[in-house]
Protein 1
Amino acid sequence: MSHLEFTGVSVRYGHFTAVHDTSLVVREGTTHGLVGESGSGKSTMARVAVGLEKAHTGTIRLDGVDITDRSRAAKLGRRRVQMIFQDPMAALDPRMPIGASIAEGLLATGRRHNRIDREQRVRELLDLVHIDPARASENPSRFSGGQRQRITIARALAAEPAVLVADEITSALDVSVQGVVLNLLRELQAELHLTMFFISHNLAVVRYVSDEVSVMRGGRIVEHGPTDTVLTDPTDPYTRELLRSIPVMGQPLDLSDANL
Amino acid sequence: MRTLRTPQGIFVLVGLVLIAAMTVLGPLVFTDAATARNIGDRQLGASFAHPFGTDDLGRDLFARTMVAARLSLLLTLGATAISVVGGVVLGVVTAVLPRPARRALSALIDILLSFPWLLLALFFSVIWGATSSGAVLAVGFAGIPVFARIVSTLAASIANADYVHVSRMLGGSRLRTAVRHVLPNIAPPVLVNTAVHASVTLLSFAALSFLGLGVQPPEYDWGRLLNEGSERIYVSPMAAIGPGIVIVFTGVVFSLLGEVLSEKRTRAVRALKGSERVAEVVPSENVVDVKNLRVAFRGEDGELVERVHGVDLSIAPGEVVGIVGESGSGKSVTAMAVAGLLGPEASLTAERLSFGEIDMRRPLDTAARRTLGLEQAMVFQDPLSSLNPALKVGRQLTEATEIHAGTKRGEATRRALAALALVRIPKPAERLEQLPHEFSGGMRQRAMIAMGLMGSPRLVIADEPTTALDVTVQRQVMRALRDAQRETGAAILLISHDIALVSGFCDRIVVMKDGVVVERLAADDLDRAQHPYTRGLISCVPDMTTDRDRPLPVLGMVDEEEVPA
């Protein structure tokens, strides 16, 4: 069981409320997509889930255990929710070999690994994300953007997370590399039965990986449902506006009503 | 270490060797000469036998200066070490503590910093007494706040990096994070500051000893020698100037060492080498005419690396052309060359590179600059960095026409209002009075477009104008671009990584990869793309109709090596 449940979560920065009383469930073994534009509060949802922000009200439960407070159970629970960041450049220590970065992920399992186990595990993980394990001692600067993102995925997997939170993980990548990372996520999902909370501003990408979709605007979820229903038959006017704004390959942009 | 081969690097290297030799050999070689009293020769001026003269007891001052090197430098290094170690510990601890403790500690550092450094050193030397070890402690402790401030600022920027967040999310303790992530990443700038600080420390010892608070007789360091020499400065100037020279020399070497360590130089490249013939521009109907454009940049090892390999591009009046490519394809460099915005670090050659009648390969004269200012407009990806944050939007809009076309203030304002209205910015009169940060991202981009409309534009270059924006805002910006184009008849060069956007907006598409144009297509001919890269670009992007049960097609030649397709 790994079931991540946001109940009535609000997040405030000073007087500004980024997320208003929002509830959302990421079901076991599925991918829940969260779409929204900048400032909609979608990244705040990711950050509050992993403890980088504090919820002002509401709870976040992992398999029924509240992971928002300061208790030991909450702390251990939070480690089972791991996040992949947007910019793989910033998410890897430039002066730490990638093998050591991935080994850091093993800390979260709470088990002690001796050196041989650790190296063995790092090799397996690199293999899983299709990076040559022999390159574990190289620094991040020796890898391309797409490879770096796969390394951060390996680090997150090292923590054996119950839920993986992916925050805009392809938006800093070139389109051709984006496909490689998305394919890897699909593959891992099939192999490891990952539960994933996938956040992006790109509707097509969210549609491609998600089973369920929530659309967020101004800190609230305006629409939610199975991916096909929400994206083929949206009920909320904002979702429709979003869908209409996506440029379609080979079709002239319809700009006639692009006002404010 | 390429910097060591520069004149500055050689000076520092030689200087360090001299200083090391003084420290190690000085007392061994000169102790006898420095202690030999010779009352007959007392208080002599500079001579060949005694370059700095002699003191009251007839001891050779040059020998004494050399002997004093060891003590002076040991004191300096000791005090610098105390400052650095203390500062690093205090600074790193400050950066990784929880918020209330962090605030308290950094307030303490701020308070300590508000006292002049020398005052702190004097205060401490009163506590620890006027001995050489007391002086080391005094100067060392007085330097701690300076370093703590530098380190805590550096560490705070690292502490907000994603990889530090990750480390904490994975359950790493604060101490572990500090040691594994923060320290290695602040080490280089701290090293640089250490070298500079050593030079300051050296001077402050000289100052303390000069005031009689540092080293006490019979011990002596450079400061003491300076002190004693200064009493006779009118009689035999070298007695004071000699030790002074050595102090200044050592200080300069340390300072320069810091500079050399921090240096990263970009060397300007001379464009258009003499051997190359500059062909006359053949007048052409096109707004932009580029033939065989090559641009190279100086790489890290100093070698020229060509990034654009012979690109041809022509844009007819009023035409809308898109360049599509991924990062490193050379699309932006090509656009910058057309706009004449490549800096001196780029080396550019072309058979033809013209905007209207202007040859963009040559240095531009005033008339050409004026024409460019009025007829060419740029919209960059990040509108915050292309608008001046401290100037009202209205002033920035009117500036170009007032300078280049000599338009009167009132007329310029009237045109600015019209331009803002054209790009659909509501309440243009109020908006003119605002600063850029009061605009949203999409509005700033539209203001940039409006700025382009102020002259008589023949070309608008838009480099990833909507990449930083949301899709709904992207539509508004693209609409503003289209309206601007229809209103003025200007051509548009749109640079983007998004082939769907480009195909929907442009008449023609140019696909670039690794600095080469791989394909040219009419926008409505996308399905007839021949080149595998173009076809890959079209198919590898998921859209709203992609089959979700199959893996995405992957471009074979991208993302290198070991990825199984």
Protein 2
Amino acid sequence: MSDHQRPWLDILVLICRWFVGLVFLYASLDKIQHPEAFAQAIANYRLVPMPLLHPFAVLLPVVEALCGLVLLVGWQRRGAALLCSLMTLVFIVAIGSALARGLDISCGCFHTEGGHGVGQDLLIRDIGLLIVALVPLFAPRDRWSLDHWLARRGH
Amino acid sequence: MSVVKQALVLLMIALVLAGILWLVHPEGLPLQADAEFYALDLSAPLVSVDDAHDYYESGSHYFVDTRAGAPEGRISIPGSFVIREHSLADDLAEVMDFLYPEDPVILYGNGGPLLVDAVAARLQERGFLDVLILQGGLQAWRDAGHPVDGQEDGHE
């Protein structure tokens, strides 16, 4: 079946790409504005070594915002989807680890203060997000993207 | 461009942007986190090196080495037990004839409070009531010139 006979694939990739892009962009905003509160949220997990805590607290939201933006426009789509998938995987491990250790902490996912406490529902949510992020990562094409438009102009 | 290359390009861009953000943010974080600031949320209270040394001299507290990795041959506070987070159950089983939950213990690590705090929380879950964390860890202990031992394995 040719590419043109599978328009649902383009729609699926577009929806998943936009969904993941919006989630990561939204998740980054409060963290970028309040790095000190986000650093505290990360420290509460007791996983990141102290020398890496502040660099991590500043870099992670920027990676989230950048990946969110480029996923929305469809530039470097697969690289951004890879980073989003890896970040989500790290979040799943961190939340699972906090649950296993019985830590009663805020997840720091979207809001740095007064956010959702870690729980199994967060694990399920992040596993769902990971599955959605895998679609733009492995999709063979993405017709309604900047990547596609640039490739066509190049030819 | 391969997927990994794309990801690396994005990471490099993010690194530059984060660097700029770091420089211009009015409430920019210092590069080095202050462990004591984040120690406010520790599971157990901190004990200063000087107080810990007094306890060491009086023999009132047991010292527990929480650093990951094999304990043989490395520098440690003399007489320390070894209880590491990654092998907590096995390590506790090894010392159970010598260390009881009612004993006061001082935990120490390399200086960062994260690993040692994880051990503190798990010991408290197992009924240890009097748990302290050595502020600054082994490095602060050594900097203060207090005794260390590189030979004893800590189980005797």
